[in-house]
From TrEMBL:
Keyword terms of this UniProt record: Cytoplasm, Ribonucleoprotein, Ribosomal protein
Source organism superkingdom: Eukaryota
BP terms from Gene Ontology: formation of translation preinitiation complex; translation reinitiation
Family under the similarity heading: Belongs to the DENR family.
Protein name: Translation machinery-associated protein 22
One GO cellular component, as annotated: ribonucleoprotein complex
GO MF term list: translation initiation factor activity
Organism: Zostera marina
Domain-related comment: The SUI1 domain may be involved in RNA binding.
């Protein structure tokens, strides 16, 4: 009495076309692995174990990174919450690229006399623009009033100022307050010997 012949049931690998149990002897076992895991995992238990381990690693890595980022977020939130809850008012300070703190520009006109060489003197007027005065217009008026050259130039800090040729120090305040009533006299300063003094 012979055994009933088992129907032949050979699974052929779709990648290397060998019977699946011979994949490991094929040309490229690595290429077969995904197919094996999908279609014939029982033939390669080691492969399955390896794959499971990899997945576990992946998942735990993922969990770890999630854990890290969420704890970072928590730290940030905590910092924000504590700064928001602090009683000190938040100061609006802008930091310039050099790390200097940019102060809000005080609304004032600063007039400085600069002697360029022994004879030539320039009166520099800064800040009229802070009172809504158009500098090109002011420059023309100053030049006309004092019969001299006046021009809008960029100062050392890149802010525009008016350079008036000649020493007009002692007439200029009255002219400014008369011409531009929006500029109060007590907002006009002279720079004298490096010190800032109120002009009136
Ligand atoms: Zn194969």
């Amino acid at each position: 009495m012979s055994e009933k012949p088992q129907p032949e049931r050979v699974l052929y690998c779709a990648v290397c076309s060998l019977p699946a149990e011979y994949c490991e002897f094929g040309a490229d076992f690595e290429a077969c692995k995904p197919w094996i895991l999908q279609n014939a995992p029982e033939l390669y238990p080691d492969l399955v174990r390896e794959a499971n381990k990899k997945n576990v690693d992946k998942v735990s890595n993922k969990l770890e990174s999630v854990g890290i980022s969420s704890s970072r977020n928590n730290a940030k939130l905590t910092a924000e919450a504590s700064s928001a809850g602090a009683s000190e008012p938040k100061q609006e300070v802008k930091r310039l690229p050099g790390g200097k703190i940019k102060k809000k520009l005080k609304q004032e006109v600063v007039i400085e006399k600069i002697v360029r060489n022994k004879r030539k003197c320039v009166t520099v007027v800064k800040g009229l623009d802070l009172f809504g005065v158009k500098l090109s217009d002011a420059s023309k008026k100053l030049g006309k009033k004092f019969a001299t050259g006046a021009s809008v130039v960029k100062g050392p800090t890149d802010k525009e100022q008016i350079d008036v040729q000649g020493d007009i120090f002692y007439d200029i305040v009255e002219f400014i307050t008369n011409t531009w009533p929006d500029v109060p006299g007590n907002a006009i300063y002279f720079i004298e010997d490096g010190r800032k003094v109120v002009a009136v």
